[in-house]
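Thread: "does anyone have the structure for this chain?"

Original post by V.I.:
We have the sequence but no experimental structure in hand. Need at least a predicted one for the grant figures.
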Amino acid sequence: MLARHSLTRSSIFIGHQFRQFHCTSLVWKKASKKTGKVKNGDDEEKFEIVDLKQYIQRATVGFDKSLELHKKSLNELRSGTSNPNIFDKLKVGKDGSKFTDLATTSTKGKSSLVVTVFDPKDTKSIISSIMAAGLNLNPERIPNNEQQLKISLPPPTTETRKQMCKKLKEVFEEYRNSANKNSLGHVRAEILKELKKIDKKNDSVKKIIQDLEKLHKEYTGRLQDSFKQAEKSVLG
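Reply from O.Q.:
Generated one for you, tokens below.
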């Protein structure tokens, strides 16, 4: 974080011209007022120097995080039923035990999953919870093994592919522009709000806002490219 130095209004104009910073990334910003009694008659407004480059740096960090989370969400969604973590949020039995406390899931090739139950007495409950999850998956006991279940994955159909693409688009819109704090639109809006509080008529602030808009447009394009690649892989 760049350091900021507080100055009084009187010191700003002695030996310095306010406009000297219009061609740099440094501008004057009125410091937030502090409550309390004024001492020694010092009631002058406080100002501080702000380096505007920090806003572009913050935007870049925020936009990078948006891309990363977007890509992760697309991959998880695209893997669908072949994702070994698909049952992790299931509740098992009357007491609502966590699936992950009772069993673990792994992939077997591209067309099946294997569930390993830690205690054989929980196998029946595990089967019931999977069948009741609405995933259209039917676990089968592996012969001579009371602790393992094999689940054959149904091949994708035209309809399931279309539904998947629809969900991918929803994820794209969430990270493009939504109330999600990690969406590109939200990150941009929060930084714009701060910049306009400084002095939106200042030439340096205008330049940084233009740079922010260009950066946002660039990352929106990258987000869309990621979505298009995911969509293409689903459609085949």
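V.I.: this helps a lot. DSSP finds seven helices and nine strands in the chain.
O.Q.: and Helices lie at 9-12, 53-79, 99-102, 123-131, 158-176, 184-199, 203-235.
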